Amino acid sequence: RSAFSKSQMTVSLYKLNADGVNAERIRVRLGRSSVHLIEILEGLQEGDRVILTDMSEWDKFDKVRLR
């Protein structure tokens, strides 16, 4: 769970592609939350990897490449 995530909201996250080098912005709908966990209602499948760190510096980009 990201420190910025709150229950019952839609957030924008970067999901890693299969290559693990590129990531694409997606919309994720969140459900219930606890101190350490948050429910994913839409936008991710089990096993998907996302970037949880602050990516606000890259908000104008829909795709990023990791180094």
Number of helices in the DSSP assignment: 0
- Oligomer kind: single chain
What is the string of helix and strand elements?
A: EEEEE
Mean pLDDT: 90
- Strand-pairing-aware structural class: mainly beta
End-to-end Cα distance, whole Å, is: 23 Å
**How many β-strand stretches?**
5
- Fraction of helical residues: under 10%
What spatial form do the alpha-carbon principal axes imply? globular
Question: Can you offer a commentary on this structure?
Answer:
The chain has strands at 10-16, 22-33, 38-42, 50-51, 63-65. With 67 residues, the chain is mainly beta. Strands 1, 2, 3, 4 and 5 form a five-stranded antiparallel sheet that branches. A hairpin with a 5-residue loop joins strand 1 and strand 2 (22-33). It is globular.
